[in-house]
Amino acid sequence: MRIFVPLDSAARALGADDVADALAREAKARSLDIHIIRNGTRGMVWLEPLVEIDTPQGRIGYGNVTPDQVPALLDGKLNGLGRVEDIDWFARQTRLTFARCGLIDPLDLDDYQAHGGLVGLRRALTMTKAQIVQEVIDSGLRGRGGAGFPTGIKWKTVAEAEASQKYIVCNADEGDSGTFADRMIIEGDPFQLIEGMVIAGLGVGATRGYVYLRSEYPDAISILTQAVQISRQRGLLGADVLGSGRAFDMEVRTGAGAYVCGEETSLLNSLEGKRGTVRAKPPLPALQGFLGQPTVVNNVISLTTIPVIFERGAQHYADFGLGRSRGTVTLQIAGNVKRGGLFETAFGLTLGEVVNDIGGGTASGRPVKAVQVGGPLGAYMHIDQFHTPMGYEEFDQNGGLIGHAGVVVFDDSVDMLKMARFAMEFCAVESCGKCTPCRIGAVRGVETIDRIAQGDPAAIPLLTDLCETMKDGSLCALGGFTPFPVMSALRNFPDDFATFREAAE
Amino acid sequence: MHSHAPAPTEEEIRGVVAPLASLEGPLLPMLHALQDTWGFVPQVAVPVLADILNLGRAEVHGVISFYHDFRAHPAGRHVLKICRAEACQSMGANALAESTLQKLGIGWHGTTPNGAVTVEPVYCLGMCACAPAAMVDGRVVGRVDDARMDRILAEVGA
Known about the structure:
Strand order of the largest sheet of chain A: 12-11-15-13-14
CATH superfamily of the largest domain in chain B: Glutaredoxin
Strand order of the largest sheet of chain B: 2-1-3-4
Structural class of chain A: alpha/beta
Radius of gyration of chain B: 18 Å
Mean pLDDT of chain B: 95
Number of strands of chain A: 15
CATH class of the largest domain in chain A: Alpha Beta
Strand content of chain A: 5-15%
Helix content of chain A: 40-55%
Low-confidence stretches of chain A: none
Mean pLDDT of chain A: 96
CATH superfamily of the largest domain in chain A: NADH-ubiquinone oxidoreductase 51kDa subunit
Low-confidence stretches of chain B: none
Number of domains of chain A: 4
Oligomer: heterodimer
Order of helices and strands of chain B: HHHHEHHEEEH
Radius of gyration of chain A: 23 Å
Helix content of chain B: 40-55%
CATH architecture of the largest domain in chain B: 3-Layer(aba) Sandwich
């Protein structure tokens, strides 16, 4: 009997290891022949630890399993959720990038291939560089790290650059609060990232790759490092990729706790062993990136989507989506929400559907007050904006940004002035110090919000002006986008900033 | 973990970092290796790294001090990181952190007098759908409430 217990760090954080231990112990005591497979997560964090038992009817799920429920589970007396694929929250998704995540043993390369793995790479190996780049352009894939820049155009720039050495750098510095898609796919399907990086290397003529993975994700570092070793042993990486005569190899590098290193030029400096300060652009990293050489810097989800595009064809991928947002978005529903987790779906659902319908409203049962979309640099959306469809342009028009598609829900106990202050405080802690609007502006921002809190109405226009300066004058998104949460809090929740009235009364 | 280890010698430091010298961009891997070995980046490593990498001492110091991860001094036997990011705040992380620090009688980055635990803030552990979260020596814990935090503190002997 095959029993699946996730090894994903969110599942482990909720007790999956204890459940796996209890299963092994109980099975031994009963002389039961069971095979425990540690799979990735299906993304339903609200059901973790989600144990699955393989039966002739399919994989039957059991949610929120605790170690003391294990005897009942093995007796068949525990209430199940039915086939995991039939659980409504799961069945409603369009899982392209996350199709294998949770299904397979993440470090079993044969299991990976049995479920469509390496089909995309084998196809790419029959194509020319120009055809590979064109396929990515045709898919309409846009950078999933936050900026939404067309991935194929970036690849084309690198492909056409002349250099003795080019690089593929994967940005796995997923520091945004409310986001965990990168972590989840690396822990649940690491070969997919490796396959995507190899295809990128073939497309632009790069033979070396790096994954810059944040130190806050020790499980992901361990799993990806093992997957890279297995890939070398099995000839997926190295001087002769799958016997093609083409070379590509890669290394996993660990970050050191600096949020700003998620910005691509800071990341490159950090990878080179320097302070993670932002570089002015131009030159673009595509032309002068890692060690001054042409470099593709792509987010984990962009790169893990590449094998899907090559397996199923660019058109298949582009057929999903809304307007200029093609394909699927990997929503990460988080914070004070009843059913949180990773929900992959075509672009186009409205924010309200995501929060209320899929997320089920708040975990606390209180009314939703604000939803921050796109991480610490994303806007706080008001429930009046719940009609906004999930799409890059659609969010932009409503004063927000999709970013890495993290959705953090807050109930009515949140004080938006405090959240605005936190955004400035965070910017001050994490600023790399290179440009003045960010380095000094963030500190002044905290002080100015404190003045508002103390009832000084003159501080509000000052804060607005400061935010304009930060927005226009900062070198990167840290200083440039911190005004998004601050100004959206001020604009959408003015009552929380109306302290001068209270002070006067 | 490493709090009572004696300060390493220059030779010991070279032994840890020299094998990494052939990497492209070797400084961060070297600093991680030092911290993995001794629990902090010893001051005596600065001139050694500067020599191996042909950098100024000030440059090496600048890199070490830029990153939150690298410590100049040993931490307590255990390190407890409590997430302060927005998703955890939405589930009461601020109150959890406050009550934890109060129980231990220390502030952020402080170590309990018995040397058992150092408490640090962290901005996101990727546990945003099971907040609030904390990490104890690399092990993540989700949906941390006061009871679960008390168990963690008992485990680390705080």
